[in-house]
Design goal:
By secondary structure, the chain is mostly helical. It has eight helices and no strands. It has helices spanning 3-19, 25-36, 48-51, 54-76, 81-105, 111-133, 136-156, 160-178. Helix 4 packs parallel to helix 6, helix 5 (81-105) packs antiparallel against helix 6 (111-133) and helix 6 packs antiparallel against helix 7. The protein is elongated.
Length: 179
Amino acid sequence: MTEEDRKLIIIKEIKHWKDSHLLPSHYCDFLLALYTEGESVTLTEKPVSDQINLLSVVIMALNLFLLPITFYILYFTHLNFMMQVLFSFFILAVAFGFYVVSKNKLKLYIVYALIILLSIILLISVTLIHQSFGSILLTSLLAGLQCISWIFIGIRKKSKFLVILGSIGIVMSTLFYIF
């Protein structure tokens, strides 16, 4: 990697910090002026079509199919409780793996991978708690607490969609308990 390549990477990162408000804009402007030596630098970025490759699409598609597969196995098959628990941990590990891979390795932080992971956690925990204890109050309380955590995660990650889903989930868990 040449010195010019390193400089472009640093400049691109500083612009990302400025766009994401990770640093005050006047600090970013100072750093940009320092690294560009007062000149404007246009970054040559890959087109969007080059950034999303076949591996990314395959991983996103497989991740998307985890939720209906989990739902089908938990509700429409006649597995004993231990098999459901083992299956649930396996699916949860796969969903977590897809989340980590899409975030770290593919550099595709799309909130849908997190939403699928959280949805699978919700589905599995509600099903297993309801089957173990049979209490609608406990099941609704668990679902409500998980949806509250979705709201906090959504606020932390600045995802309005996750906050909205968490709010809808709280309303649904409350209505489930009442009716």
